[in-house]
Amino acid sequence: MSTPSHHFSDAEKRGLYRAIDERRDVRSQFLPDPIAPEILARVLKAAHHAPSVGFMQPWDFIVIESSEVRASIVAMFEQENQKAAERFEGERKERYQGLKLQGILESPINLCITCDRSRGGPHVLGRNSILETDLFSTCLAVQNLWLAARAEGIGVGWVSILDQAQLSSALSLPNHVYPVAYLCLGYVSEFLDKPELEAKGWRARLPLHELVHSDHWGQPLADSPLVTALHEQE
Ligand SMILES: Cc1cc2c(cc1C)N(C[C@H](O)[C@H](O)[C@H](O)COP(=O)(O)O)c1[nH]c(=O)[nH]c(=O)c1N2
């Protein structure tokens, strides 16, 4: 029997799951090595091929080229990060302050992925009931980029400890454009084998089987082959 063309070979499947399992948020391990334009373009194409509500494609990609803009983003981060630290107390606060939560200056590329909330006009197919679907779509572009970058050996770090209004102003975004993700990209000395927040004792991965419910929130699945299979994935 011939293999249908929509079939992924075992090696292709392994590659995809490997990118998913080994994708990391990177802040500390960036190398200064430049990313070749054709590789960056490939990764941006992966982002651009994300699904989007009504094929709205609400994203734009702002490549930060000026060192002044970078410096202003670092200052923004410092300000917001200090405020964030105040939300914790005692040992938790110390642990928070010990975390490195951005690699803005160390990474060779900074990129902001935005969502143009007006793209496609006032009536976008599929967006009449849930307005935020444009933002959801943009997050999928971020994830596509993150996975493609991982397959290319490039680390990505998402920096969200930023004041949204200040960020919009630093990037001259019009009011209808929302800055969804400020990202740092670069080759890395290593990809950690688990999330840095887990390795540093901030928070552990939740057991998958506890997150799969039956019919209603909080109702566990009855014992079934799926439950067994979920345990095996952990
Ligand atoms: C929307 C959003 C926003 C942020 C993040 C992620 C996402 C999805 N993450 C990264 C986050 O901490 C990380 O994804 C988790 O800890 C899981 O680790 P891995 O991504 O699996 O390495 C993140 N990390 C960081 O150091 N500073 C930040 O400001 C943010 N902000």
TrEMBL record:
KW Iron (keyword) present: no
GO MF terms, alphabetically ordered: 5,6-dimethylbenzimidazole synthase activity; nucleotide binding
SUPFAM superfamilies: FMN-dependent nitroreductase-like
Domain of life from the UniProt record: Bacteria
Enzyme Commission number, as recorded: 1.13.11.79
Pfam families, A to Z: Nitroreductase (PF00881)
Family: Belongs to the BluB family.
Name listed for the protein in its UniProt record: 5,6-dimethylbenzimidazole synthase
Organism of origin: Vreelandella alkaliphila
